[in-house]
Amino acid sequence: MKKRLKVAVIGLGSFGSEIVKTLFNLGHEVVAIDNRKELVQAIQPYATIAVTLDATDKEALEEAGLVNMDVCIVSIGEPMETSILATLYAKELGVERVIVKATNDTHATIMKKIGADEIINPERDMAVRVAYKIASKNVFDITHFESGFSFIEIKAPDELVGQTLIESRIRNKYGVFVVAIKKKNMDTPIIVPDPETPIERDDILMLIGSKEAITKFQDKFS
Length: 222
What we know:
Distance between the termini: 39 Å
CATH topology of the largest domain: Rossmann fold
CATH class of the largest domain: Alpha Beta
Number of strands: 11
Low-confidence stretches: none
Strand content: 25-35%
Order of helices and strands: EHEHEHEHEHEHEEHHEEEH
Structural class: alpha/beta
CATH architecture of the largest domain: 3-Layer(aba) Sandwich
Largest sheet: 6 strands, parallel
């Protein structure tokens, strides 16, 4: 049974609110925080607890339960000072994993320096994904992670069609791992497919690997 996480989300704009709803629907314990009462009231049905407070008030954050959280997501774009203080206080209160939404490179750099564990730039990340999809008709989705790994959904290259996964030697040749395959007439993908699974025309391969390996695979086959 997967662990039920305790997550605090500070900042309930569209990005933060969607994170709250998604995590709550996945069965995790979510504390939603914002200083705007109307946003807190709107999110109440979709959160374990919804609290109206000032994220620059360390004592208020402690009373809201941040000391017990596994993860804190700071989803405050502006003002940057509030984002900085909320991040610092989350770390000081002992939250092991603090994820921060950054609005620009300067914001991201500052957050890394003060101890944020992960940085998310939703607008930039979405722009990159759209650009890749426009540039290559075979790429359906691509995500680059801070850890240096990337995930891509790409149409099965013609050169690999007719081979099984083990025959294609994708992992050995390109350093990428097939985590799932979407078949044309199947509603759900095959997760961690068997090495003897055939690669068929119109299959969508879901791959993970280093950013460099994914980029090389994409350049070769798209």
